Amino acid sequence: MSAPLRLAVLLSGEGTSLENLFERIESGALEARVEVVIASKRSAGGLARAERRGVDAFAVPRREHDEVESFNDSIHVLLDRYDIDLVLLLGFLSIFETRGKFDGRTMNVHPALIPGFSGQGYYGRRLHEAVIESGVKVTGATVHFVDAEYDHGPIILQESLPVLDDDTPDELSARVQALERELVPEAIRLFAEGRLRLEGRRVHRS
How many whole angstroms separate alpha carbon 114 and alpha carbon 131? Predict the structure, then answer.
């Protein structure tokens, strides 16, 4: 039996996607282990979720760093303590620099169909408000490899769902989050099984 995939999770909020990840692992549906959780806010609820399960959890507040480089320096100091196979950005609202070490080994989940409604400022309720106000008929979720830009790297998995005529931002958000909870574990599983091959901007699945 192969060893569980060793994960690092970066987040900024309540950590509902992290909770889903823990539940998938605990149920045996995903052969992985969360080694460390790092939050960009001291108030992030995801820190408590990690601590309740005995997982190392640290806050590296973005506001305490003038430059994104020094912010990432502090994150990498923590990551270097662990032997990490894959870094996951689950609601992480800052740039993470892969710095060569984590190229092709960092994934982000975005609650829209990249390249639409993506980039800096498109997160949370405001993203779903923008989707509804635009009049588009479909939205969805995307899991992609991370590069140097917000919500930009090669797409691993992407699925759509309809935007209903009477949708509220909260209703739409709930359906997108349910989709994310399926896509993230699947992307991790494909990575663990060596079934993802990156060629330029394309990710091929075997």
Answer: 12
Find out whether 64 and 22 touch, Cβ atoms under 8 Å. Answer: no
| pLDDT tens per residue, range 148-167 | 898 999 999 999 999 999 99
The domains of the chain are located at: 5-194
Q: Do 92 and 111 touch, CB atoms closer than 8 A? A: no
Active site amino acids: 110
Backbone phi, then psi, for 6, in 5-degree steps? -95, 120
Whole-model pTM: value is: 0.96
Rounded Cα–Cα distance for residues 196 and 117 (Å) = 25
**Which secondary structure element, helix H or strand E, spans residue 187, and what is its range?**
helix 169-192
Q: What pairs with residue 128 in β-bridges? A: none
Fold of the CATH domain 5-194: Rossmann fold (3.40.50)
For 28, phi then psi, to 5°, come to: 90, 5
